[in-house]
């Protein structure tokens, strides 16, 4: 027994460190023990520790526990691990609805009077599941920043506001533009795509605005352009930064007036078009450099969305790989294959400069070149195989830092992420919900703007 007694402080330290809430109550709902995570999940800030389950506003947790445990099968005698029963509840904490998952059991005491409750915050996960199922499931992600983007897409989709989607090549801008149209109330109307960078400059005007009969010589008939083709629907202008200056002016006028003149015609044509534009160059930077019209930028960027590159959402890598493998299996590629540990390491460490598109082609290459249905480093494209990866430094401390250190660490990450909590959480190697809880525990203001100290630049996500 002496050894067990010695372990108690260690066990307490572990329980106070974990992200799950842990509560021990008696039969009347009096709280006998709570770890910091439980208090953060259930109690409003400044309310002090939870004395009784009855203190939790808006929900009768004691009654819920009674009902669940009443129906629970009896714990087998001498059972070492308790029979945990799971149930979910929505609780309003700090004016915000939280989806909590509870695991509970009668704790092993002589009279069966104690109750052990373990809580997990599933709010972000549930929100993501709902969003993804609504967006017809073809956008694969579990990344908090992407989740926020999906929420923004859902919010703006039913409006007429122009949307500007920016991000590196292959991050999914076109994918998101199509999703936006699908979720809009123009979804049954045309969705017209036009890539300004892949069309020769002399042809862009006629392609976009159309041309009158004979505009390019006798044999040319009249032709409606993309703007007219998108009438009552959505026009997706990809690589809008490649639009020449005189056409930037013409497009701005068309958007302001809802009308424009086709090439070789004086007769205005009307079009009611919802604009979505995309660029993998920073459009605001181009405005500042005098390469893009500021007034057109403001017209297009009413609702800007920036899609993060894959290296900023490494958690999506396994998901996307699995997604593309499923798609390839439908096309006859092997379904039963595995990765060698080295190949897996390379796929995770590689910075994916071509983002999701590069992943899509890399996995196809790997499946063509796999050896006995195992993807080995030699199965991967040359760039990935020869990627000279740097060791990734974890910023997760081995032991819990002091509150002051933890506060500085969080403030530094927030400053470095420009206040973006999802990104800051990534820098810290924790999820967003945990960051949110820590911020409240340490009373870190959401608006605090603190300059990042020098050493913060050494931080890497893990
Ligand atoms: N989150 C995602 N889930 C599933 N597929 C995705 C996702 N993001 C991108 N894709 C797929 O990856 C490929 C590249 O995406 P997309 O064409 O949308 O990138 P992009 O940002 O528009 O690239 P570019 O800048 O070159 O136009 C497409 O086949 C797209 O369907
Ligand atoms: Mg695109």
TrEMBL record:
Keyword Ribosomal protein: no
Keywords: Activator, ATP-binding, Nucleotide-binding, Transcription, Transcription regulation, Two-component regulatory system
A GO MF label: sequence-specific DNA binding
Domain Sigma-54 factor interaction: residue ranges: 139-368
GO biological process: phosphorelay signal transduction system; regulation of DNA-templated transcription
InterPro entries: AAA+_ATPase, AAA_lid_NorR, Homeodomain-like_sf, HTH_Fis, P-loop_NTPase, PAS, PAS-like_dom_sf, Sigma_54_int
Protein name listed in UniProt: Sigma-54 factor interaction domain-containing protein
Organism name: Rhodobium orientis
Lineage start: Bacteria, Pseudomonadati, Pseudomonadota, Alphaproteobacteria, Hyphomicrobiales
């Amino acid at each position: 027994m002496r050894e067990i007694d010695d372990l108690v402080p260690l066990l307490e330290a572990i329980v106070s460190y974990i992200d799950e809430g842990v509560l021990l109550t008696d039969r009347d709902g009096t709280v006998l023990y709570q770890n910091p995570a439980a208090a953060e999940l259930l109690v409003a800030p400044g309310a002090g520790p939870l004395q009784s389950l009855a203190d939790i506003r808006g929900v009768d947790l004691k009654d819920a526990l009674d009902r669940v445990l009443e129906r629970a099968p009896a714990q087998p005698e001498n059972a070492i691990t308790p029979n945990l029963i799971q149930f979910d509840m929505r609780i309003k904490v700090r004016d915000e609805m939280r989806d909590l998952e509870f695991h509970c059991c009668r704790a092993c005491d002589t009279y069966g009077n104690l109750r052990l409750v373990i809580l997990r915050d599933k709010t972000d996960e549930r929100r993501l599941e709902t969003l993804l199922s609504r967006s017809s499931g073809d956008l694969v992600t579990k990344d908090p920043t992407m989740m926020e983007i999906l929420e923004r897409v859902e919010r703006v989709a039913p409006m007429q506001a122009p949307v500007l989607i920016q991000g590196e090549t292959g991050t999914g801008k076109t994918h998101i533009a199509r999703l936006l149209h699908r979720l809009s109330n123009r979804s049954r109307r045309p969705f017209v795509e036009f890539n300004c960078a892949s069309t020769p400059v002399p042809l862009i005007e006629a392609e976009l605005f159309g041309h009158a009969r004979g505009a390019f010589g006798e044999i040319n008939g009249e032709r409606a352009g993309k703007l007219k083709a998108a009438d009552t629907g959505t026009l997706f202008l990809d690589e809008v930064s490649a639009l020449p200056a005189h056409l930037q002016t013409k497009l701005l006028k068309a958007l302001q007036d809802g009308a424009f003149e086709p090439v070789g015609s004086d007769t205005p044509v009307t079009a009611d078009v919802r604009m979505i534009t995309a660029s993998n160059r920073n459009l605001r930077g181009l405005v500042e450099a005098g390469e893009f019209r500021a007034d057109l930028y403001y017209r297009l960027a009413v609702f800007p969305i920036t899609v993060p590159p894959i290296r900023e959402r490494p958690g999506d890598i396994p998901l996307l790989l699995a997604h593309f493998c499923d798609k390839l299996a439908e096309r006859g590629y092997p379904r039963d294959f595995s990765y060698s540990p080295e190949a897996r390491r390379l796929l995770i460490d590689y910075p994916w400069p071509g983002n999701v598109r590069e992943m899509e082609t890399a996995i196809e290459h790997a499946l063509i070149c796999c050896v006995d249905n195992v993807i080995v480093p030699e199965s991967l494209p040359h760039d990935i195989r020869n990627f000279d990866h740097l060791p990734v430094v974890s910023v997760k401390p081995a032991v819990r830092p002091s509150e002051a250190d933890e506060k500085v660490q969080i403030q530094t990450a927030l400053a470095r992420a420009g206040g973006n909590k999802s990104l800051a959480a990534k820098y810290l190697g924790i999820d967003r919900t945990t960051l949110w809880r820590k911020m409240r525990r340490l009373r870190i203001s959401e608006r605090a703007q603190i300059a990042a100290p020098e050493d913060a630049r050494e931080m890497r996500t893990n």
